[in-house]
From TrEMBL:
Pfam hit, one: GFO_IDH_MocA_C3
InterPro entries the UniProt entry points to: Gfo/Idh/MocA-like_OxRdtase_N (IPR000683), Gfo/Idh/MocA_Oxidoreductases (IPR051450), GFO_IDH_MocA-like_dom (IPR055170), NAD(P)-bd_dom_sf (IPR036291)
Sequence ranges assigned to domain GFO/IDH/MocA-like oxidoreductase in this UniProt record: 131-271
Originating organism: Murimonas intestini
Protein name: Dehydrogenase
Tree of life domain: Bacteria
MF annotations from Gene Ontology: nucleotide binding
Domain Gfo/Idh/MocA-like oxidoreductase N-terminal intervals: 5-122
Length: 363
């Protein structure tokens, strides 16, 4: 029989409510308690899910029946809430990012080491089927040794009223959005970033306090190179977040939303087009088995509309897995040290980008 545990969700906005829905039917879940500083958010959450809610954090921290907390507040609140929860003896799942500065990140690591608490950062692309498929192909050797990762991401901007455009709340575009994709390439490649170049054009969105475009080139210790190009002005509609699924991916693609990857190896390549719901594997002239001059498609992987979420932002499997691990006393799927390396890069990239310089930073 499964042991059920009570869980609290700290932050009852969109992400917090998503977590509630993700874990609602888990056999490992007892009760859910919601916490927020906004009375409006608490009222909406209580009415929709009929759960207990509170605006007093101590109600959560002092309740020994609550074994796990999910943190879904604004970015600047993640580390303070995680530290308070770990010191109170709770297991912690925190949405990304963690640590808007190196000292804050180091403090989080120190408290986890001191308490031995379970903590996992929400980098759900590592649970997502599309990216797991790419990882399986890379690790199998079917494209040889990966030497290059190129990825392009284009979407429409956050709204003027969003806390995400405020530097004090979000940290940077790296922390708020791009940490997922920085982490993804780290995971695929399995090597540490040894040096990087970061730059950007001047912002074109006047109310943004963070970057609205990014160019990042990295060299890894194993010799591989990656390049990320991100732009938040090229999509003309208000469908700013594909996670909301307001329109079909194919239609968002027509609106200028792009999320593409090309992973080149010594024998072949992987091409991923998220908005076309497709992954293709190529064999090129570097493979002795390839007798043709042109590249040859050897595999095609695709999925239908109803499986979008599980393929490229699988929060449900992640949140259910964290609940199960906390209930069963298992360690996190992703260690804090691993996630912290991604967050450290986000801090370093953002700092290097100030002034739009073009300088190689060695680590």
């Amino acid at each position: 029989m499964n042991e059920k545990i009570n869980a609290a969700v700290l932050g009852c906005g969109l992400m917090g409510r998503t977590i509630i829905e993700n874990i609602w039917d888990s056999p490992f879940l007892g009760e859910i308690i919601g916490y927020d500083v906004s009375g409006e958010a608490l009222k909406a959450t209580q009415e929709k899910y009929n759960i207990c809610v509170t605006d007093q954090l101590d109600d959560i921290l002092k309740d020994e029946s609550i074994k796990l907390v999910y943190i879904a507040a604004s970015n600047d609140a993640h580390v303070p809430l995680a530290i308070a929860a770990m010191k109170a003896g709770k297991a912690v799942m925190t949405e990304k990012p963690v640590g808007l500065s190196i000292p804050e990140l180091d403090k989080l690591l120190a408290v986890q080491k001191e308490t031995g608490a379970f903590i996992q950062v929400g980098l759900e692309l590592r649970y997502s089927k599309l990216y797991l498929k790419a990882k399986e192909i890379i690790d199998s050797g079917r494209i040889g040794k990966p030497v290059s990762y190129h990825y392009t991401y284009s979407c429409s901007p956050y709204e003027r009223e969003s806390w995400r455009v405020k530097k004090a709340n979000s940290g940077s575009m790296y922390h708020e959005k791009l940490c997922h994709y920085i982490d993804l390439v780290r995971w695929w490649n399995g090597s540490r970033v040894s040096e990087f170049v970061v730059t950007s054009a001047p912002n074109t969105i006047p109310y943004f306090e963070i970057e609205d475009n990014v160019h990042v080139s990295c060299r890894f210790e194993n010799g591989a190179v990656s390049h990320l190009f991100f732009l938040m002005t090229a999509a003309p509609t208000g469908n700013s977040d594909m996670l909301q699924m307001k329109t079909d991916l194919f239609d968002q693609d027509k609106d200028g939303h792009k999320l593409n990857y090309i992973i080149t190896g010594t024998k072949g390549a992987i091409e991923i087009d998220v908005f076309q719901r497709q992954l293709r594997v190529y064999r090129h002239a570097g493979d002795p088995a390839q007798t043709k001059t042109a590249e040859e498609i050897t595999e095609v992987y695709a999925w239908d509309e109803g499986r979008d979420h599980e393929h490229f932002h699988n929060t449900q499997t992640q949140n259910l897995d964290i609940l199960r691990r906390a209930a069963c006393g298992e360690p996190p799927y992703l260690s804090l040290e691993d996630a912290a390396e991604t967050m450290r890069l986000c801090v370093e990239f953002s700092a290097a980008q100030q002034g739009h310089t073009w300088e190689v930073i060695k680590r």
